[in-house]
Write a sequence for this structure.
């Protein structure tokens, strides 16, 4: 299942759920797409609600990111943990990684080492 948002010709985001333990994000994770990405990710988390086990969030397909992308991740991780799931964020883009390190939330969010 994939949710695609196309707010403009240049900024799109796709949040997919290829398995019960994985979320894959592709496209721009920015201020322009944050609301849609957040909502799509929350739908995926509700659909994949199975306590226990590690949930992987793969950002390898993110082409553009900013601090709004970090805010989306914080919300997803918090929701998953409230649902009893551990979270590991993979392939963190530079902008999100830098913002997370500055805010000292990279380890809390479960970012995989670079």
């Amino acid at each position: 299942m994939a949710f695609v948002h196309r707010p403009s010709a240049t900024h799109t985001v796709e949040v997919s759920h290829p398995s019960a333990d994985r979320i894959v994000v592709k496209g721009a994770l920015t201020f322009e797409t944050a609301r849609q990405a957040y909502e799509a990710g929350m739908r995926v988390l509700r659909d994949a609600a199975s306590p226990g086990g590690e949930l992987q969030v793969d950002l390898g397909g993110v082409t553009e990111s900013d601090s709004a992308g970090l805010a989306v991740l914080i919300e997803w991780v918090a929701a998953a943990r409230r649902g009893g799931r551990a979270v590991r964020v993979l392939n963190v883009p530079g902008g999100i990684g830098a913002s997370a390190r500055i805010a000292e939330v990279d380890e809390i969010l479960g970012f995989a080492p670079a």
Summary: Strands lie at 2-5, 13-19, 22-29, 54-65, 86-90. The chain has one domain: 2-103. The chain has a mean pLDDT of 85.
